[in-house]
Each structure stands twice: as structure tokens, then as C-alpha cells.
Amino acid sequence: MADASLKTLHPFLNEVDTKVSSGGTIRSYSHDTRSGPVLLLLHGYPQSSYMWRHIVPWLKDYSLFIPELPGYGISSLPPKPDKRTVGNLILEAFRSVFPSRDVIWVGHDRGARVGHRLLVDNDASHRIITAILIDIVPTTQQWRAFANPLASIAYYHWPFLALPTAPQLIEAMGGYEYCKNSLDRARGANEVGAAKFKENDAVDHYSHLFSLPETIAGSCADYASAAGDEVKEQESDQKEGKKIQTSTLVLYSASNLGRMHDVDAVWKEWVQDGTELRTVGIKEFGHYLPEETPEQVAEFVLDWVEKHSSKQAKI
Q1: Among 12, 17, 46, 202, which residue's Cβ finds the most Cβ atoms within 10 Å?
Q2: pTM above 0.85, yes or no
Q3: Over the stretch 89-146, which tens digit does the pLDDT of each residue have?
């Protein structure tokens, strides 16, 4: 079932390939209720938009835009792998489908990091009215955690993927096997969650994408960027007091990320005073929360979206 997609599972979604200014193409799946803000759902590593398959039915009352992250095997490689470039390309594709609608950013893993960059940029033209970031702390905070041996082992792929030789090493092992191993390491120990994660041949779907040299190269470039200029930029942002000024919900795995970080305390340092921030640790499940416990994630997302959509309607 490696060739399955969100469209395969949910025919009400519209599949679009959008040509963007970089010369590449971004594939997306959308659903238009004709009014209100649009939920933009962006996946992370080592996955695709397929990771939202359990969540989509819960969100049908809202307009949806679900892109494939550039460089991860379906959308084209971006001209530069930094989060701002990638985020702007995604928003360019978004505007081709929804020309004048507000955005609610919902990002998991790398998708959350792209969202974090755009939130700090605080560009009014992006029209991001609120955000939900799933299972991350800011990039510089993640690097600092490597002083903890447990974190170094759990997140070993961060420095590894940033190496110039990482693509060749992964190809030597086989991208399929490497991806499968990576997925096994990060998911939770809860048996129900593990079974839910594997539904619809998800492991085969993701691993098949990592059989492609372009996916390996693109994802490694993403991590290399996160080890270089992106760190310097975040450090500069913090020194200059440039922080998130948009209401933000952070959902995280209490069993995984929550063991390595005081997530609430960390994010308070990255959100401007007076800006609404809520952090919620979800117990018993691992990194892939939207797949392992979709009902819980959907409930938090819907509550947050309803609250902030109502606020926007009153403005």
C-alpha cells in the first residue's frame, strides 16, 4: 500500500500539485467549507501527509490544507532547506488554493519547526491567527539537551543526519530499513497506540518514500540546516527579544519529549509576555501522537480551533 495517499483514504479531499516560484511543485490535499480559517497541517520526519490520516475525519467541519513537506519525496526539493524558505513555499501553495483565508498552523515535528520560524517572523501577510505545535521544543533547546546522554541516544539522528556523508551511509544501509528503524525508535510503548500507528500500512508507506535518493538527500539537508544557520538565527532572535506573538498550543509526549525537557518552562522563554501559551503533555504515547492517539489530539485541536476561530469572528 506504499502508493496510498490521504486522497485514497479520504476521497472528499482534493489533490493538487501547485507550481511554485522556486520552479518546483508542492502537492497538497484540501477540503473547503467555503468560510472561516483554514487548518494547515504539516508533517515532519520521516513521514508524509499520510500521518494525518486518522485526524482528518475529525476535522471535516473546517477547511483543510495538508501539504507534503518539500524535499520529503513527494513535493519537490526546495532551493534552500531552511525553515523560512520551506514555510514561504508552503504558504505560496496555500494561497493558490485559498487566496484570502486565515491560517491555523498545525505542525508536527519538522512541520512544527517550520511553523515556529514563521511565527517568530510575524509577517502579517502570512495571516497565521493561531498555531498548534506538536512534540517539539525550539531547535537550539534541543541541541542543548545533548549534554544529557539519554537525550543524545534518543535523538542521535540529529547530528548524524547533519553530516555530509549521511545520505551515502543511509543508502548503504538501505533507506527503507533506515526509515523503518527510525519509526520503531520514536513511537510509544503503548500497544494500542503502536497498532494504531501501523494501520493502513503506514510503516511501508513512509519507508518506501525513504527508498528514494531525493527523500534521503532532502531530509538530510533539512537537518544540516537545523545544525547551522538556523541555530545562529534562533540565538540572535532570543538576544533581540524576537519571540512568538501568536497564541500557541504545544502538545507533547510526556513519555518521550517530557522526559528530556521541562516543556512548559522552555516554551515560556520563547513566547512574548502577554501572548497566550498552553502546553499539554499527553501520557503513555510516543512521538507520533496524531497516529498513536488521534482521538486525544483531535479533541485538543478542535477545542483550540473553536476557541480561536470564535475570537477571530468577533474582530
Answers
A1: 46
A2: yes
A3: 999 999 999 999 999 999 999 999 999 999 999 999 999 999 999 999 999 999 999 9
Domain boundaries, the chain: 6-314
pLDDT digits (tens, 9 = 90+) for 71-85: 999 999 999 999 999
End-to-end CA distance of the chain: 46
Q: CA nearest 66: which of 122, 37, 116, 106?
A: 106
**In angstroms, what CA-CA distances link 36 with 99, 187, 254?**
13, 34, 32
CATH fold group of domain 6-314: Rossmann fold (3.40.50)
Partners of 253 in the β-ladder: 282
Q: What is the dihedral of CA 301, 302, 303, 306, to 10 degrees?
A: 120
Find, among 230, 39, 43, the residue nearest to 143 by Cα: 230
Q: For residue range 159-217, what is the model confidence (pLDDT) as tens digits? A: 999 999 999 999 999 999 999 999 988 777 889 999 999 999 999 999 999 999 999 99
pLDDT of residue 186: 75
CA-to-CA dists, residue 295 to 106, 129, 280, 305, 315, angstroms: 16, 24, 15, 15, 31
Containing 279, the helix (H) or strand (E) segment is strand 277-282
